[in-house]
């Protein structure tokens, strides 16, 4: 979903992946098989303007 919206993965360190689009960088937590908290998921969708 993130890549289809034009975000590019620029690096990953530990449990966070950093995406960039139009000069804006956004760290996204990636903790393996753990589910992302609903509030965090909704916040990322809003901030990254995902559909």
TrEMBL record:
It holds the Pfam family HicA_toxin. The keyword Hydrolase applies. One of its GO terms (molecular function) is mRNA binding. This is Uncharacterized protein. Keywords: Endonuclease, Hydrolase, Nuclease, RNA-binding, Stress response, Toxin-antitoxin system. The keyword rRNA processing does not apply.
């Amino acid at each position: 979903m993130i890549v289809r919206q034009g975000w590019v993965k620029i690096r990953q360190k530990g449990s966070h992946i950093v995406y960039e689009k139009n000069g804006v960088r956004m760290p996204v937590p990636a903790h393996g098989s753990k589910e992302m908290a609903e509030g965090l998921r909704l916040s990322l969708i809003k901030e990254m303007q995902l559909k």
